[in-house]
Inverse folding.
């Protein structure tokens, strides 16, 4: 299984081959189109991410200690963005997800080429994934209070 950083590096390499941002947007849309369809039963209010202008659903399940994410969006570029996050972070432990530095976002220049509302949506998606990972930490991994 690949590490989070190896998966990020794969995305960075894909984007490095493309100079033009219109072509990069096309790649983002393609990545979104490769995302498996999210089962309608998971398109619930609980799975909707607050802070996104378009609708983005993120479903998470803990399987054998690994967090598995599935997602969908009603906007093509946003679906591509969430697809990249799912590709990088799905099927890792909650601790790995929390400890990860999502450097690919800056490395491919994504944030500077997004509208302010899409940029806020990206932040909201990452926050939801990290909050989900925090909630899924095993009890012995949680920080303990020192009196």
């Amino acid at each position: 299984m690949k590490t989070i950083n190896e998966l990020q590096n794969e995305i960075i390499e894909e984007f490095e081959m493309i100079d033009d941002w219109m072509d990069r947007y096309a790649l983002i849309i393609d990545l979104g189109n490769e995302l498996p369809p999210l089962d309608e039963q998971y398109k619930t209010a609980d799975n909707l991410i607050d802070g996104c202008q378009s609708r983005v659903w993120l479903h998470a399940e803990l399987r054998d200690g690994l967090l598995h994410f599935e997602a969908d969006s009603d906007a093509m570029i946003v679906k591509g963005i969430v697809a990249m996050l799912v590709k990088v972070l799905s099927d890792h432990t909650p601790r790995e997800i929390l400890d990860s530095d999502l450097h690919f976002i800056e490395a491919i220049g994504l944030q500077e080429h997004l509208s302010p509302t899409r940029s806020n949506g990206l932040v909201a998606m990452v926050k939801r994934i990290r909050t989900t990972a925090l909630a899924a930490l095993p009890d012995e991994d949680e920080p303990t209070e020192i009196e």
